[in-house]
Specification:
361 residues, mainly alpha, MetI-like fold, 2 domains, 15 helices, transmembrane, transport, cell inner membrane
């Protein structure tokens, strides 16, 4: 198993390089870079995209020709533009910029944000608690509720309990996450009915003044609604996946034989069926965790005014803050690959009969 883990760890490096190559190449063809953004703001256009929408001269900044590379900067001295290029590193060829960035990233040196004058690593660490809170608690709650519910539905397949629970989770799955989040705000956060939970933020303003118990209670008080909004759509997929997996195993010959020998249903279910049925459920853990950790958190963070990695990545993409964009891609790519390896190790933990090394020889 050690050799397999080592091979997987070594594969992380070329995979991350491939991710960065694709994204770095794409950014070279996307108009409205950081220099164009600064030029647009200095000309009073807000940003380069507003200038395009208004049909103004800022749209010409996408063109390049002769010595006048940024045509929208006619009123700015060339020395100022050259200084901007040196500051952002755009005076160097793309290949040299990419290799420098890759070398720095391999050492976890992500540089400094173009527009926030702060280290990217400090920025990521500042936003990490929000994203970890959403991803960790949402995934944990989804698994703690969906797996027992799916097992119960498989055991009582076709009963009224199975029917009404299926209806309930399908309705929950059909409701978009952002709509459910707005509904929670309206009902429970002082919208029109109750004011049981705070409207925004991860902690209260007086958080530092609270006792340890008070801090824990304040944290869960703030995170309850965002976690519920993030988790609701996960119940249906995971519950039905667990149910169908257990149903498939329950019908197999070894289960019938075990029951014929007089083994208790609980022992058959959790001693024999559980190990085999849970493999397919575990396989979906990395995708679910990363999806909640990044993709779903963008909308939820915006609705609940939470300053996390998802919102930071979106704002960086709009502002063309390349160091933040690439650092976010790098961090989430690395997390995704490590979680994938963790999933394989969990396979072996659940079913020791699985041997990845023998499959590769």
């Amino acid at each position: 198993m050690g050799a397999y883990i080592l091979r997987r760890l070594l594969l992380i490096v070329p995979t991350l390089i491939g991710i960065m190559v694709i994204n770095f190449t794409l950014t070279q063809f996307v108009p409205g870079g950081p220099i164009e953004q600064i030029i647009a703001q200095m000309e009073g256009q807000g940003d380069v995209f507003q200038g395009i929408a208004g049909g103004g001269d800022v749209g010409e900044s996408f063109a390049a020709g002769g010595d006048d590379k940024y045509l929208g900067a006619r009123g700015l001295p060339p020395e100022f533009i050259e200084e901007l290029e040196r500051e952002f590193g755009f005076d160097k060829p793309p290949l040299e910029r990419f290799l420098t960035m890759l070398w720095n990233y391999l050492r976890f040196d992500f540089g400094e944000s173009y527009f926030r004058s702060v280290s990217v690593i400090d920025l990521v660490l500042e936003k990490m608690p929000v994203s970890i809170s959403l991803g960790l608690w949402s995934t944990l709650i989804a698994y703690l509720v969906s797996i027992p519910l799916g097992i119960r539905k498989a055991v009582r397949d076709g009963t009224p309990f199975d029917t009404w629970t299926s209806g309930a989770i399908i309705i929950g799955y059909a409701i978009p996450g952002f709509l459910f989040a707005v509904l929670l705000l309206v009902v429970f956060a002082g919208g029109s009915y109750f004011q049981w939970f705070p409207l925004r933020g991860l902690t209260s303003d007086n958080f530092e003044e609270l006792s340890l118990i008070g801090k824990i209670g304040d944290y869960f008080w703030h995170i309850t609604l965002p976690v519920l909004a993030t988790t609701i759509s996960s119940f249906a997929t995971l519950t039905l996946l667990t149910k169908n997996s257990f149903l498939d195993e329950i019908k197999k010959q070894y289960v019938i034989t075990a029951k014929a020998k007089g083994l208790a249903e609980t022992r058959v279910l959790y001693g024999h069926v559980f190990r085999n049925a849970m493999l397919i459920v575990i396989a979906g853990f990395p995708a679910m965790f990363i999806g909640v950790f990044f993709g779903a958190s963008i909308i939820i963070e915006t609705i609940f005014s939470l300053d996390g990695l998802g919102r930071m990545g979106f704002e960086a993409a709009v502002a063309r803050d390349y160091p933040v964009i690439f650092a976010t891609l790098y961090v989430f790519g690395l997390i995704g690959l490590l979680v994938g390896l963790l999933s394989d190790l969990t396979y072996v933990l659940v079913d020791p009969r699985i041997d990845f090394e023998s499959r590769e020889t």
